[in-house]
Amino acid sequence: MNITYWSDIACPFCYIGATRMKRAMKAVGLNPNDLKMRAFQLKPYAPQETTENMLTQFATSHHMSKEDAQSQFDYIASMGEKEGLHIDMAGAIPTNTMLAHRLIKWAETQLSKDKLQELISALYQLYFERHVSIASKDELIRVASAFGLPAASTLNFLDSNQFEAEVKADMNLAYQSGVSGAPFFVLNQKYGISGAQPYEYMEAALKQVLAEERKKSNDEN
């Protein structure tokens, strides 16, 4: 089964949704490492550097108190905990995610599928747990190095514009397909799942598509 999803590293629901989808894939006998990520930037014009943390920016942009913003962040954290994830939104640094998306595209050409999934998870952790800038080349090089990608090669790549067109192409495809937010999953280029739906919903959807695949195979034979 072909399963792709649009995601942004700065999106907690993408982190949660991808984790649920991979768990559902494993439950129905599919390889979670076959889940393919497409780039989506929730804020493509976000700055490369900022002195604000997410709590301050979120409260200001949504015209609410920091207490109300923290309440929403606590709810997201509780969602993450149920999936074994640590998501601390308040201290995240809301910078541009283009470099991270480009790194994922490049790493896809360098790493095995399982290592690529681990690298993507490491980037989520960088953002939501460690609270360092996802736009920092030094931090991205450290992550890449942990997966055997040479620091010099990673720096040369990050200093270029390689895979920027591919990242933008992913986003353009999303817009052309009517996808306006992330996460958004597509099963067999036919069925869409919007948002971080409950695990049970995702598992049921996978079972339905697998049943259709088996029926089609039987009919053809």
Automatic annotation (TrEMBL):
Gene3D superfamilies: Glutaredoxin. InterPro entries: DSBA-like_thioredoxin_dom (IPR001853), Thioredoxin-like_sf (IPR036249). Residues 3-207 form the DSBA-like thioredoxin domain. It comes from the Bacteria. GO terms for molecular function: isomerase activity; oxidoreductase activity. Keywords: Isomerase. The keyword Isomerase applies. The keyword Repeat does not apply. This is Predicted dithiol-disulfide isomerase, DsbA family. It comes from Streptococcus equinus (Streptococcus bovis). The lineage of its organism: Bacteria, Bacillati, Bacillota, Bacilli, Lactobacillales.
